[in-house]
Fold this protein.
Amino acid sequence: MNGAKPEGARSEEEAAQWVRGMFARVAHRYDLANHLLSFNIDRHWRAHTARRVRHILEEPGARVLDMCCGTGDLALALAKGREGSVLASDFCHPMLTAARAKAERRRSRTVFFEADALRLPVRDASLDLITVGFGFRNLANYAAGLAEMRRALRPGGAAAILEFSQPRNPAFAALYGFYSRRILPLVGGALSGSRDAYIYLPDSVRKFPSAGELADAMRHATFRDVAYEFLTGGIVALHLGRA
Ligand SMILES: C[S@@+](CC[C@H](N)C(=O)[O-])C[C@H]1O[C@@H](n2cnc3c(N)ncnc32)[C@H](O)[C@@H]1O
C-alpha cells in the first residue's frame, strides 16, 4: 500500500500539495457536486456510518474526531443528537470555511481545526473514535495514515473508514465504470469549473486498494476486530477496526 499519486506528483509532499489545491478549487461547489453526482446517496452512506458507531457517540465523554472532514457532512452526521461535541479536521482551508458556515447554520457544536491527517495535533491514545469519509483515499501514504489513527486512538478505541470501493457485480461495475469515467468528469467539471478534479476522482478510486487489501493493511497497522461491509453494491465500503 502506498498512497494517492496524482498525475505529475513526484513525492508525497507534492501529492499532498496537489490534493490540497484541488479541494481548494472545488470547495465552493463540493456539496452540490457530491449530492448531484451520487443522486443524494452520499447522505445515506454517512448516516449509515454514524449509525454503526452510534454506541460510541452515545457515551457522554467519548472523544470523537472526524479527520479529512471536508465541508463537514460526516462530522455533522456524527454530531446529530449527540450531547458532547465532535472534533473535525482537514488540511484544506476553503473546505473548513464551508464546514464552519454549515455547522453554524445548523447550530452544531462541531469544533473544526486545520490539520494534516498524517500529523494530527492530538496526544497519543487520546481519542475514542476516529472516522474518515472519502478522505483516506487521498492520503499521500496509507500506512502512515493508519499508523497515525492508531497512535491517536486509546486502546479499544474505534476507527471507521468510509471510502469508495469497486462494485461487486460485473454488469453493475461496467455501468458504474462508464458513469465515473465519462459522465462524472463532464458534470463534475461543469459544476465546479475544475475538470481535473473529476478526472482524478475515478482514477484515484480505481487505484485505491480493494476492501480486502485495506482490511489487511489495518490489521498490519495492529487494528483488531477488523471488518468491512459494502454499501450500494460495492460502490462504497465501510471498514471498522479497534485499536
Ligand atoms: C473527498 S473530501 C471528503 C470530505 C468529507 N469527509 C465528506 O465526507 O464529504 C476529502 C477531504 O480530505 C482532505 N484531505 C486529504 N488529504 C488530507 C490530509 N493529508 N490531511 C487532512 N485532510 C486531507 C481534503 O482536503 C478534502 O477536504
